[in-house]
């Protein structure tokens, strides 16, 4: 386990940060969050072709850079910091990992290079309108037909589900939970963008009326692959949240140093200083668990399920706490549309619930630790 | 890794000396006098003062050789860890001549006389007064000190007292070596809310200290005190290391065990003070409370906090080793310890339920749970309150401005203070 980043990791962070500072300033975030697609194709292209980010952890054999989850976590942390509007989490974290975990060799050869090159936008559909993130909540049916399957049912809370070209769908087949893939423009798939609290991450509802799909790998082996994919995704979302939380602390401390009331900067009042110190404490714990979870995804698969849940719960709580305190310290201004804090608050609120809320993950943690 | 030439020759030298001089059948005092004469007891101290002038890294080589052969080192406690280094840094040659040797041999033990009932977080606001006697040879000291470990058997106290009331508070303090065994010095055990009495309060009524026992200049005591405080963090670690090293046989080791037991006695409740997160899961299972979903949530929260605090410490250490500039993670440990202790207390209560009413032999785990519940409040106060720690973090790590101070630029005489 690395406890301190390597020089290469530092360099990756600097590169991504520079790129995002230039390409995803908050004015762009505000513009894109009002659009239907929710991302800028020219920036996505640069991010893919110049930096190769969609392939950062995809093995070289499938067209990626062959780095690990630690590096993927760094990329996500920087994206969270910049509040980048892009289908990265959907395509690279959810869909690519589902394919890596479940797909046969030929499916990986077929599907991953497009994702790693940023040419295919993919996503993973797990939850349904009831909003459960565990296998028990999956009712969508995969009925065998010939060499393939037909999907019947509904998915919801699908990240970038309206813009994705390739769908990976968790469904209930004759042999249990499986993962299936299909083109999103298939005729019997209805896609409806949802109106969301956090407009920087688009969600959609998908209706499947007998859409033809192919099983990823063995149709009976989907439950384990899905579970692993969700653990990896929770660990990565934790890293993304740390980036946003750090940005909130930076904005808030800066504001507390410059905002003057009662003849002195508000940051000189203990009531404010102590809040800021508490924010830092929560942030650093969140960072430790997010980094450790990324390390587990790379090096300690047995530990990953428990630690991913630990990190997801802890980072969710921390991000939301920092966002709420950031608004509080910004005072009335913090509640305005014009001030940027609310953009992070909304991302924090959405990330708290996406993939399961902290209570759900703490129960998973307790189970996984055998308590 | 190959050792440097220096390390290798130091290792050879200390090994040869230990082989020639160490045996476990001598008395501690006899042995430590040999340490003082040879300089091997405190190898990083200067040659002229019982040391060998080695850099800290080579000091570690010497301790390794002591451990390897099972030889006893210099005593733990406030003398070696606090008073010694302070005197080395600030004492006159006369002070060093008179006071250092007894520290190294363990014949003179020391306690700290810093905090007062009226000055806790604001140590520089202390009001114990030291006034020059008529003949000008000594100071006469009046006041009350608090939280002094081992004050009842210490030979000397590291005393901070106010010698000038007409200057701002930091500039009127003097640091003294006070002889404890004299009529004007009365230590009394201070009973804590958990029933233990780990510390003393010390009453000073016309206690006398020779002018020659000032450490550093008169009026410069605040700077001298910083030297002591800088070493304070280490002193408990040193004590624990001494405790680990006291497993051998023979007279020297038997005497060492007695010495360590004496020094550790005030700290028997310290594990409980930290909250005993290690007992949580086992207790939850034993009581069956692990099936309650609310309890499960609280346990998961607490253990997440405890684990990620460990990881944060690992990150801080790795950054240090890698020579990176210290990040914020290094300054937060004490605050996390408070949070963990409080969370433990809450979760232990949740698990223990109504049995939380019971202590001693009637209480769960022979009273350990009750001791946790009534000891945890110490963590967020001892060694600097959480509130002061948050000030430090927000100023030094986050760069927030200091709060305006009302007592810095005027004579201490005019500063409002606690009624006596």
Describe the protein:
The complex is a heterodimer of chains A (371) and B (420). Chain A is of the alpha+beta class and 371 residues long. Chain A folds into three domains: 110 residues, Orthogonal Bundle (Butyryl-Coa Dehydrogenase, subunit A, domain 1), CATH 1.10.540.10; 97 residues, Butyryl-CoA Dehydrogenase, subunit A, domain 2; 146 residues, Butyryl-CoA Dehydrogenase, subunit A, domain 3. Helices cover 52% and strands 16% of the residues of chain A. Chain A has eleven helices and nine strands. In chain A, strands 1, 2, 3, 4, 5, 6 and 7 form a seven-stranded mixed sheet that branches. The two termini of chain A are 25 Å apart. Chain B is an alpha+beta fold. Chain B has three domains: 105 residues, no CATH class; 128 residues, Butyryl-CoA Dehydrogenase, subunit A, domain 2; 114 residues. Chain B is 45% helix and 13% strand. Chain B has a four-stranded mixed sheet. In chain B, strand 2 and strand 3 form a beta hairpin. Chain B starts with a helix and ends in a 23-residue tail after the last helix. The interface between A and B is large, with 38 and 47 residues.
Per-chain topology:
The complex is a heterodimer of chains A (371) and B (420).
Chain A: H1 7-23, H2 26-32, H3 41-49, H4 69-82, H5 88-102, H6 105-116, E1 122-125, E2 141-145, E3 148-159, E4 166-173, E5 176-183, E6 189-193, E7 203-215, H7 222-258, E8 260-261, E9 264-265, H8 270-299, H9 304-330, H10 341-353, H11 358-368
Parallel strand pairs in A: 1-4
Antiparallel strand pairs in A: 2-3, 3-7, 4-5, 5-7, 6-7, 8-9
Chain B: H1 5-21, H2 28-38, H3 56-69, H4 78-90, H5 93-105, E1 110-113, E2 129-132, E3 138-148, E4 156-162, E5 173-179, E6 185-190, E7 199-210, E8 214-215, H6 221-244, H7 251-264, H8 270-273, H9 280-287, H10 293-321, H11 333-352, H12 368-375, H13 386-397
Parallel strand pairs in B: 1-4
Antiparallel strand pairs in B: 2-3, 3-7, 4-5, 5-8, 6-7
Helix pairs in contact in B: 1-3, 4-5, 4-6, 6-7, 9-11, 10-11
């Amino acid at each position: 386990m690395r406890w301190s980043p390597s020089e290469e990791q530092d360099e990756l962070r600097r590169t991504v940060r520079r790129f995002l500072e230039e390409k995803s300033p908050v004015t762009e975030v505000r513009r894109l969050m009002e659009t239907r697609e929710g991302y800028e194709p020219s920036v996505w292209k640069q991010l893919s072709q110049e930096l190769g980010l969609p392939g950062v952890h995809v093995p070289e054999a499938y067209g990626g850079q062959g780095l690990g989850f630690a590096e993927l976590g760094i990329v996500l942390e920087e994206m969270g910091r910049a509040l980048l509007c892009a289908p990265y989490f959907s395509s690279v974290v959810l869909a690519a990992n589902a394919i890596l975990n479940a797909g046969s060799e030929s499916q990986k050869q077929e599907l991953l290079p497009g994702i790693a090159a940023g040419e295919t936008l993919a996503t993973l559909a797990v939850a349904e309108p009831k909003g459960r993130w565990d296998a028990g909540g999956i009712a969508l049916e995969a009925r065998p037909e010939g060499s393939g399957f037909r999907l019947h049912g509904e998915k919801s809370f699908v990240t970038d589900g309206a813009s994705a070209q390739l769908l990976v769908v968790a469904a209930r087949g004759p042999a249990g939970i499986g993962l299936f893939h299909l083109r999103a423009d298939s005729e019997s798939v209805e896609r409806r963008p949802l109106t969301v609290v956090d407009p920087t991450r688009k969600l959609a509802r998908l209706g499947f009326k007998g859409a033809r799909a192919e099983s990823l790998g063995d149709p009976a082996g989907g439950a384990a692959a899905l579970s692993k994919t969700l653990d990896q995704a929770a660990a990565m979302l934790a890293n993304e949240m740390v980036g946003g939380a750090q940005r909130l602390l930076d904005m808030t401390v800066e504001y507390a140093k410059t905002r003057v009331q009662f003849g002195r900067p508000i940051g000189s009042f203990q009531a404010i200083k102590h809040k800021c110190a508490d924010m830092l404490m929560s942030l650093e714990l969140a960072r430790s668990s997010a980094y450790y979870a990324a390390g587990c995804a790379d090096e300690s698969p047995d530990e990953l399920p428990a630690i991913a849940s630990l990190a997801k719960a802890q980072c969710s709580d921390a991000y939301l706490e920092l966002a709420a305190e950031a608004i509080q310290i910004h005072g009335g201004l913090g509640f305005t549309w014009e001030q940027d804090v609310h953009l992070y608050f909304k991302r924090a609120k959405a990330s708290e619930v996406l993939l399961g809320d902290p209570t759900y993950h703490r129960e998973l943690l307790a189970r996984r630790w055998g308590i | 890794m190959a050792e440097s030439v220096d390390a290798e020759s130091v290792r050879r030298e200390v090994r040869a000396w230990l082989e020639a001089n160490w045996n476990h059948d001598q008395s501690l005092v006899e042995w430590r006098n040999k340490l003082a004469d040879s300089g091997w007891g405190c190898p990083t101290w200067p040659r002229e003062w019982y040391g060998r002038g080695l850099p800290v890294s080579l000091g570690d080589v010497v301790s390794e050789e002591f451990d390897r052969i099972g030889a006893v080192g210099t005593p733990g406690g406030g003398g070696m860890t606090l008073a010694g280094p302070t005197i080395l840094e600030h004492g006159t040659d006369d002070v060093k001549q008179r006071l250092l040797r007894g520290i190294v041999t363990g014949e003179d033990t020391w306690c700290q006389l810093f905090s007062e009932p009226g000055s806790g977080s604001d140590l520089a606001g202390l009001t114990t007064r030291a006034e020059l006697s008529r003949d000008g040879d000594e100071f006469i000291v009046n006041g009350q000190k608090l939280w002094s470990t081992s004050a009842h058997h210490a030979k000397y106290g590291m005393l901070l007292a106010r010698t000038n009331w007409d200057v701002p508070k930091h500039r009127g303090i003097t640091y003294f070596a006070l002889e404890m065994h004299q009529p004007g010095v009365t230590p009394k055990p201070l009973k804590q809310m958990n029933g233990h009495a780990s510390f003393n309060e010390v009453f000073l009524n016309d206690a006398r200290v020779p002018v020659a026992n000032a450490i550093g200049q008169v009026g410069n005591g605040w700077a001298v005190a910083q030297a002591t405080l800088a070493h304070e963090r280490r002193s408990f670690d040193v004590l624990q290391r001494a405790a680990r090293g006291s497993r051998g046989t023979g007279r020297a080791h038997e005497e060492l065990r007695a010495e360590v037991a004496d020094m550790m006695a005030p700290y028997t409740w310290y594990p409980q003070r930290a909250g005993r997160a290690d007992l949580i899961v086992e207790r939850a299972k034993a009581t069956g409370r692990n099936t309650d979903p609310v309890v499960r949530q609280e346990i998961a929260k607490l253990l997440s906090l405890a684990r990620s605090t460990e990881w944060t410490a690992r990150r801080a250490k790795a950054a240090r080793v890698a020579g990176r500039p210290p990040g914020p993670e290094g300054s937060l440990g004490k605050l996390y310890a408070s949070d963990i202790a409080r969370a433990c207390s809450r979760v232990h209560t949740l698990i223990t339920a109504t049995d939380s009413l019971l202590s001693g032999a009637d209480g769960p785990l022979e009273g350990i749970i009750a001791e946790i519940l009534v000891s945890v409040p110490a963590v967020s106060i001892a060694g600097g309150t959480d509130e002061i720690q948050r000030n430090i973090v927000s100023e030094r790590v986050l760069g927030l401005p200091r709060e305006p101070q009302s007592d810095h630029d005027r004579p201490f005489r005019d500063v409002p203070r606690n009624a006596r």
